[in-house]
Design brief:
Elements lengths: L1 E6 L22 H14 L3 H19 L11 E6 L7 E10 L2 E11 L3 E10 L6 E2 L3 H17 L9 E7 L2 E6 L2 E6 L5 E2 L7 H11 L4 E6 L2 H12 L3 E7 L3 E7 L9 H6 L4 E4 L16 H9 L7 H6 L4 H14 L20 H8 L8 H10 L7 H35 L11 E6 L1 H5 L3 H12 L2 H4 L2 E7 L2 H22 L1
Parallel strand pairs: 3-7, 6-10, 7-11, 12-15, 15-16
Antiparallel strand pairs: 1-16, 2-14, 3-4, 4-5, 8-9, 12-13, 13-14
Length: about 500
């Protein structure tokens, strides 16, 4: 696991939001430039608009912490993980992740010494014939076989101790405790008659016991919580974890007293902060707070889940390419680009993959934008294109990509300001706060990280900016799950001592 740290005070602090998208087109016609200027204005977000969003975000977080508010955008789900790793914990832990058709089993040896660790990991494929049937235990039984095989590969000793394991599954799970959760929906092509409503942890325990595996599932693990804890083991001041890729989510530490969904007796007995899974992907879905454009409304209306996950649809890898495609089609219909070209590829929904934006925005090596030509003409079969066409397409990618980063930066600022206001943002020992972020889009999109940090710095007070750092964390999810297992074991041990 690697982490790239950016100190928010490492660059000159600017109280201005990132500037409007400069046009700077050399080859575009006057009409093309005027049309693009109107699109820039449509997607522009002023500092005042961002501050309105920040206010709304804080309100939604507070409402989500109240029990059963049907009008709240964000679910604010308790993770049941309390306390903070120190980086000095030691032990050997297992993690299991089911992601699509892949199974990942990981052994993490925590060495202490301020976050040193060693990782063994193996990947397995789920056979097609195990994706559906009458009994989901057939799938879990196969997963148990994978765990058994993994233990043999890493020389796991079965007679000396029981491994603590955390599991992360690619199904929608309603979690009612650290090691309790029932499946509420099967996804990614899985279909079992008895899948919905089953207790995942019980199933794993039953299969592990049947195969004689000395493994105990001690926790369910959410990917955002895993990101936070994976970074926190090496950077104990970490208070936020963010996943930003095909989808997006954020987890942060909250005071247990404010989490009204928890039983009052639990809140009385537990004084340490708990990690909350915000489910911020759904922010703005009640048609409040976000600067939604006509292009966003069109995408949402034509999606397979209209009126939900609006923030996700404006910012993530699943949807950014489709926003770009819709803008390009609009420009074609306005006779601004691709005159007379074959547009079959462009007319297909979701044909403009978000990864194309990475290539096009980074295309600065040639005057005729050769990499952009390859995407348009060879990948999308739009032929021929002019240099002006490519220049316009590049600017459209920049407009959509920059707005996405600004919205993400504004959302992070919202959580940071919420935590500062409640005195839970800064590590008391160091008076600092680290923010952990992972995800292909965040890591691979040119300038995305810089744009997020620029927006974040513009929205938080200058006097505290130097207390914050942002870490881009790679390969964190499975490692973080093992650290969730460590935290569960630690919490159980501390509970026994109190008893």
């Amino acid at each position: 696991m690697t982490s790239i740290q950016t100190d928010l005070a490492s660059e000159k602090h600017d109280t201005k939001v990132p500037s409007a998208f400069p046009l700077e087109l050399k080859h575009a016609s006057e009409d093309q430039q005027k049309t693009l200027e109107s699109i820039i204005q449509t997607f522009e977000i002023s500092k005042e608009r961002l501050e309105t969003m920040v206010k709304g975000f804080s309100e939604e977080m507070a409402r989500g912490l109240e029990a059963n508010d049907p009008h709240c955008d964000m679910k604010m789900i308790p993770s049941w993980v309390t306390g903070h790793p120190t980086g000095n914990e030691k032990g050997v832990y297992l993690a299991l992740e089911i992601s699509g058709m892949d199974i990942y089993v990981c052994q993490v040896k925590l060495k202490g010494e301020r976050g040193k660790l060693a990782i063994n990991q193996y990947q397995y494929k789920i056979p097609d014939h195990l994706t559906a049937g009458g009994d989901i235990s057939i799938l879990i039984d196969y997963v148990a076989d994978c765990v058994s095989d993994f233990l043999v590969r890493v020389g796991g000793t079965q007679d000396l101790f029981v491994y603590s394991m955390a599991v992360s599954v690619g199904f929608a799970v309603k979690q009612t405790g650290l090691d309790k959760g029932t499946i509420v929906a099967l996804e990614h092509g899985f279909d079992y008659h008895n899948g919905v409503g089953c207790d995942v942890v019980k199933l794993f325990h039953s299969c592990f016991k049947k195969k004689g595996l000395a493994v105990k599932v001690v926790a369910m693990a959410n990917d955002t919580v895993c990101t936070l804890l994976a970074h926190a083991y090496q950077h104990p001041s970490t208070r936020l974890g963010i996943v930003h890729s095909a989808g997006t989510n954020c987890a942060y530490y909250e005071n247990v007293d404010r989490i009204k969904a928890l039983d009052p007796s639990f809140r009385e007995e537990n004084t340490e902060d708990m990690i909350i899974n915000t489910e911020w992907c759904n922010f703005g879905s009640k048609k409040r707070w976000l600067p939604v454009t006509w292009f966003d409304r069109k995408l949402d209306r034509e999606s397979n889940n209209p009126s939900i996950h609006i923030f996700e649809k404006m910012t993530t890898g699943m949807y950014l390419g489709e926003i770009v495609r819709n803008i390009l089609v609009y420009l074609v219909d306005s006779d601004m680009i691709f005159s007379g070209a074959n547009l079959e590829g462009l007319n297909t929904p979701y044909s403009f993959d978000t990864s194309y934006m990475y290539v096009i925005e980074a295309d600065n090596n040639t005057e005729d934008l050769e990499d952009t030509r390859v995407i348009l003409e060879e990948m999308l079969k739009i032929s021929p294109t002019t240099v002006a066409d490519r220049e316009v397409a590049k600017k459209v990618c920049e407009i959509v990509g920059r707005r996405s980063a600004m919205l993400v930066g504004g959302s992070i600022a919202s959580v940071v300001l919420y935590m500062l206001d409640r005195g839970i943002a800064l590590d008391k020992a160091t008076e600092s706060c680290a923010i952990a972020i992972t995800g292909d889009l965040y890591e691979d999109y040119p300038s995305f990280h810089a744009r997020v940090c620029e927006t974040l710095k513009a929205l938080i007070p200058t006097e505290v900016a130097g207390n914050f750092s942002v870490g881009i964390v790679k390969h964190s999810r499975i490692v973080g799950a093992a650290i969730v297992a460590m935290m569960a074991e630690k919490m159980d041990r501390e509970g026994d001592m109190e008893d």
